[in-house]
Amino acid sequence: MKLSASRLAQWFVQGDHYSIRLDESRLVFESKHITETVPFSIWDGQCRISRGLWWGRLTVIVSPADRPAQTLTVYGLPWRELQAFAEQLTGEYQVWLAGQQKRFMLVEHELFALRDILADHQGYLRDADLKAWREKADAVFEAHTLHPQVFSVANPALYQAVYGWIQNGDAKRMARNQRWQDNERERWSAWFDEAESSPLNASQRDAVLMDDNHNLLLAGAGSGKTSVLMARTRYLVMGEQTTPERILMLAFGKKASEEMKTRLQAHQLTKVNVSTFHSFATTIIKEATGQAPVMADLATDEESKMSWMTLWLAKNLANPTVEKRWQKHLAQWKVSGLSADRPLVEQAHEPKLHKWLWRQLDLLQQQTLSQTAIKQRIQALQPNTTEREDDTTLTELDSPNTNMVAKALSELSLVWPLVRDYRQHLTQNKTLDFNGLIIEATKILSKKNATLASHYDHVMVDEYQDISPSRLALLEAVCGGKRDRSPSLFAVGDDWQAIYRFAGSDVSLTTDFLARFPKGEIRYLDTTYRFNSMLGDVANRFIQVNPTQLSKPLNSHRLQKKKAVTLLPTERIAAALDKLASSQGEKSASVLIIGRNNANKPADLGQWYSSYPSLDIRYVTAHASKGLEADYTFIVDVNENVFPARSYAEGLEGALLHMEEGVEHAEERRLFYVALTRAKHQCWVCCEPEMASVFVKELWQGDYPVSCSITKKQLMAN
C-alpha cells in the first residue's frame, strides 16, 4: 500500500518526502535523496493530514528511543486519495496494536514483578542493585519483543513506574537514597545521640548510613573514625540489615584489630569477624584447603633468614660468572655491606648486605609481575630525548631518572636469581611468606568467590590509605564475583596521613578511588576534636599544598585566636619545657617529643624526664606517632636533609616505589602533617636556625599563622 506525489508535485517538493508506503508493520518514507523506515513501535498511530492549494500533506510523529520525538511530513499527495489512505494506515496500526496488547497481557505480571522489586526494596539501593534490576528488565523486554509505545498505551501507570527507572535510573536512585537517608537519620536520631560517649555529629551520622557498593570515608586526624566504625556496625545489626557474623572488619595491624574487638565486645558483638589482612588470608586458605598454611621459617625466624642468605651468597658468589656481574655493578654503584676490594664470597655473611637483599626481595615479592614486566615498568621511567631551546639535545644522560633506571636494571639482574631461588624454596617446602599469604588467598577467592566470600554482607577496612595493590586485589576478590548481592566495601582512611609508601602502600589507590570505582561514594568527617582551630589552620593548609591530595574541610571543634604553632631554635627547647611546666602548676600534661627517626632522639631527654615531673614526656618517631595524641608536642631536628629526609630510595627500590606526585617531598609532607596533628593545644617546630629545613622556611615565609622565635637573620643565613 503506497501513496506518492505526482511528478509535477515531486518537482515542487524538491528535497522533502514525496512518498509513503506501508511495509508490514513499518512506514517507509521516500525523498529524492533518502529512504526512512519507521516501525510501528515508535509511531504514535495517528495521521495528521491537511490540504494545500492543490495537494495534501500527511504528518506523523515518531519517538525513537535514542532521540527526542520528531515529525515526518510527506508533501504533494493527491487529496482525494489521502484521507482514505490515512484511515487505512491507522487501521493497520490498530490491528498491530491489538496484537501487541494481547502479547502485553501475557507479560504484564512480569512487569508488575519488576516494579515491585524496586518498590519493595528495603534500605539503600546500591548501584549494583539497580544494574541487576536493569538486566532483568532488559531480559523481559527482549524475550517478549515488548515495545515501549505499546506499554505506555496498555498501562500508563505501570509504564511510568518501570520505564522511569530504565530511562533515568541513576537520578531516581540518588533521589530515593537521599529520602531513605533522611528518614533513617530522623528515625535513629535519639540513638545517634547516645551510641558513643559523645553524640555523633552530622557528618558522622551520614557516614554511618553510607551503603553503596564502594564507599570511601575520608576521616581526618581526630575526627572520630573509630566511633563511626563502631556505630555503623551496631546500626547494621540493630537495624536488622545483617547479622554480626556477616560483617568483616579488616585492620592492618594486630593492635588495631584487638582494639576493635575489645570495643565490639563491650556491645556484645563478639561474632563480628575482626581480623588483620594476614589472619583473614590464613582463614580463607584453611577453609579452601582444609588445613592452615605453613609459614616459612625465612619469613618468621631471623636466624633461619641469616643462615639461608649466607649459604645462598656463598654458593652464588663463588660462581665466576655471577661474581663478574656483581663486580661490574660495584664498579659503578655501591651495595650496602659489600666491598669490591675484597673477594666477594668472603663477604657472604655481612649483615648489611643481608638487610639490603631482603629489602629488594620483599619489594619484588609484593609484585605479581614477571621479570620481563618489571623490566618494562622500570624502563618506562626513562625520559625521552628532547630538544633544548638552543637547538642542542637534552639526552637521557642529563636526567636524574636515568641513573636510577640504569642502576635499577642492574640491581634487578643481581637480585632476580635470589627471587627465583627463594620462591623455589617456598614451593619445595610447601610454605608461604606474608606476601604469599595475601596472593594465595586472592587466587582462591577469585575462583571460589561465590562460596568462600558469600559469608559477608559488609566489609569494613580501617586505615585504607595504607592499602597496597595486593591487599586491594584481595578486597576486590571478597567484594566481587557473581552473587545476588555482593558485600558493600566501607573503606575508612585519610590520604593526608598516607605515610607507608616504603612498606608498599600506594596513596593513589585512595586518591583515585572514583577512577577505580566510578559509581562509588566518597564522604568525609568534617570536624576534628583533637586540635584547636589555629593549629588546624596551619596543618590543613600545609598538607593541601600538594594538589594530588583530596580536598576536604576539617574544622576544629575548639576555636581560638592565639597562635598554636611556634618555630623554635633547638637550644630553647628546655626553656619552653620549663615555661610549660610552670604554667601547668599542679596539673599534669602529656608531651610528645617527635623526631624523624630514632637517631633524632634528643640527648637531654633523660634530663627532661627528671626535671619536669609534672610533664609526662615521651619520645616517638614521626611514623610511630600516627594514632597518638598529647596535650603538647615538640617536633625536633626539623633540619635540612633530616625532616624532610633526603631520599635514599635509588636503583631498584626507587624504581619500584616511584610515584609521580604534585610536589617535592610529598610523602615527607604527609609525615610532617601527621606530626603536626598530634597536639591538642600547642606544637613547637624545632630546628637549628642556620640549618632550618624547607618545611620550617615554608611555615615562616608562607601565609601560615605561626609564631617564630627564630630571627629573620638566622633563617635568611641558610
UniProtKB/TrEMBL annotation:
Catalysed reaction, written as an equation: ATP + H2O = ADP + phosphate + H(+); Couples ATP hydrolysis with the unwinding of duplex DNA by translocating in the 3'-5' direction
Record's keyword annotation contains Ribosomal protein? no
Q: Please tell me whether the keyword Hydrolase is annotated for this protein.
A: yes
Its keywords, alphabetically, are: ATP-binding, Helicase, Hydrolase, Isomerase, Nucleotide-binding
What would be one Pfam family of this protein? UvrD_C
**MF term (GO), any:** hydrolase activity
Q: What is this protein called?
A: DNA 3'-5' helicase
